[in-house]
Amino acid sequence: MAVDPDKIGVIAGSGQFPLLFIEAAKKAGRRTVLIAHRNETGDEVAAAADEVCWLKLGQLGKLLKFFHSRGVGETVFVGAITKTKIFRDILPDIKALSLWNKIDSKQDDAILRAVAGALEQEGIQVLESTCYLQHLFFPHGVLTRKKPDNNQRLDIAFGWKNARAIGALDIGQCVVVRNRSVLAVEAIDGTDATIIRGGNLAKEQAVVVKVRKPGQDFRFDLPATGIQTIETLASVRGAVLAVEAGQSLLFDPEAMIRAADEAGIIVVGVSENLDGTLDY
Questions:
Q1: Spatial contact of 219 and 129, defined as CB atoms under 8 Å apart
Q2: How many separate domains does the chain show?
Q3: Local structure of residue 128 (DSSP, 8 states)
């Protein structure tokens, strides 16, 4: 079937990002063809799309067949996939198994780049997930009423260096620190679990730092925060959320900042200068 330029594929995980993307794409005049993952993608996302195919993680051949039958020539990856499902809730078809066996590293970027490569070999271009949503980038500066004190600024700088290091190894994008000690490092369990692990060790006043990976591919796996992040940090009496500005996504900013102010949590968008110093 010929490519329909009005259509855009949406390969969706969980969360609100897929719904926000579909709404923005429609405003831009695109028809959305959705790949929805069972036990991940919300029903409201499926209801918003023009066409939908439900599948389980690993059904790459089914995905390609659906896109080709609908004339999809461009697609995006949006929303999270629970990473632990790689080990317990995957139904790989022959196409996926063949691809999986060619991947040396089973880390996030390696898997996603391999899937993107397979799509592009089939004539389906993978676009940046933010192509219609630049307004969702995390802003620069202190966003809350409270500002970080000197000790917290030192923790932000310390956490930044360590978060960047684990990102370079494709381990995660977030660390939890207190008094220049790393209490938790994000791994396959995700940001919220990392905050809980680190926050419980800190007892209180934990500082969470979340950054992009060096060489971050904006087509997928962008860091994202929202009100759920604040609620999780508040549950362990955390003190600071520092996020790299312009390199990650912020959902429901007004509600998030309101919740942070109510909990006494500092939220700050941080930028790195050419000389390595931090600015906010």
A1: yes
A2: 2
A3: P
